[in-house]
Amino acid sequence: MAIQLRRGLRKRGALGVVALVAAVPALVGPAALDAQSGARAAPVYAISARDKAEGAKAHPELLAEFGGALSGTQARYVEQVGKRIAVQSGLSNATGDFTVTLLNSPVNNAFAIPGGYIYVTRQLTALMNNEAELAGVLGHEVGHVAARHSAQRQKAAQRNQVLGVLGSILSGAVLGDNAFGRLGQQIFSQGSQLLTLKFSRSQELQADQLGITYLKRSGYDPRAMAGVLESLARQNALEAQLRGSGSEVPEWASTHPDPASRVRSALTYAGTTSTGTTNRDAFLGGIDGLVYGDDPKQGVVDGRKFTHPVLRFAFEAPAGFYMVNGTSAVAINGASGKAQFAGGKLTGGLESYIADVFGTLTEGNQSRIAPASVQRTTVNGIPAAYGVARVQSSGSTMDLVVFAYDFGNGQAYHFVAIAQAGGAEAFTPMFRSLRRISAADAGTVKPRLLRVTTVKAGDTVRSLAARMAYRDGQLERFLVLNGLQQDATLAPGQKVKLVTY
């Protein structure tokens, strides 16, 4: 949750990234057989001047959506690898035509847009185990652009209302097609629309194959694509396990479906043997020190507790709920309801603020939603107010609650919650938990960091896992982070990743 909070809930039109696919790039050549793999390659399109202009226009917006760009040695390393793989796509032979960005985001995500812009989050980068895997993921994303998959997804976007990045993550695990329905999707959507549409299975397989082809051309081990897909599948399963979810949460920010089923296809396409490099040690040295998980500057989720040391507040989710921290909001999810925490400027009274938040939401007939009344209260010394509206969504009767707080100096924060009629009381403990925190409390919030350590004699998987900065799932987190199995034997001198404070 970024420091600059937006009032109400954002509505997005077909602007920014979506507009990028409106222009048809210049065709370089028809589909042809790849010289090394023998597979039919995607048609290749050159980066046009229009692509560059539209990409440059969307780039700042994407940075804002995904936590901003990181700088420093890790970012420069990722940029170097990204440019090396990108020129293999045929979009351009000049590395200077590509902009590769390491995003300050705790979500496993990567994407690319026309104009030579390629993005990967620090969280997904930390999950990888060698340079070839990083190159494979970035090559996969460039492959989507080279094959013009985004243009095909844009046609779907014009036919259907889509969810944002955060909304997609949460709706797959909680919302689905159940009674929360369209209204719930509208409330909890944010992010760039184009990036959140799932690619089809055939598009994913083609992008995998293109990524593998680029790996071969660059001299990397092409089997690395299967390795990172397996790590993603394991990470998805681990997150579902830790949250107590009955099904796996959507993977790769819900835009790259089913990595588990693609592992075998990637291995088949890559071949069983390779003389390519992985550059594992260079990779581990290049990413050592990355922030892992939430950045305290954007607030930190720790179990059911959310703390923002910069904005100086904290609250707790209800029992049985889990949270996901987004760029501009925090989402709270459980079997009985969903909520979102955000904020904005308070230019009038809380009654007006609450009315404005309700005003951003509409029911199926597009009528304006308004609370029956607004009640004043105080929460931990903070002036507050709330309103409840009973609405119809996907044939079910739901209670929609907006609970807002006046933090002074023109700053307000609010929860929006939706539950089955009569079920919104489940959120009352959370509404009442919001409190200011002292400078001393804020100072105790430290970032988790990815640290590369060298195995010493006597170290085991379990002894190293015990050093992971978590209260739950230490062993499982360590194994997935390092691509290891539980019976793995570590050798002195081997390098592994840990997450520490």
UniProtKB/TrEMBL annotation:
Cofactor section: Zn(2+)
Signal peptide: 1-28
Keyword field contains Hydrolase: yes
Matching PANTHER family: METALLOENDOPEPTIDASE OMA1, METALLOENDOPEPTIDASE OMA1, MITOCHONDRIAL
Coiled coil spans: none
InterPro entries listed in its UniProt record: LysM, Mito/Outer_Membr_Metalloprot, Peptidase_M48
Annotated keywords: Hydrolase, Metal-binding, Metalloprotease, Protease, Signal, Zinc
Domain (LysM) ranges: 451-498
PROSITE patterns according to UniProt: LYSM
Name the record gives this protein: M48 family metalloprotease
One MF term in the entry's GO annotations: metallopeptidase activity
Domain of life: Bacteria
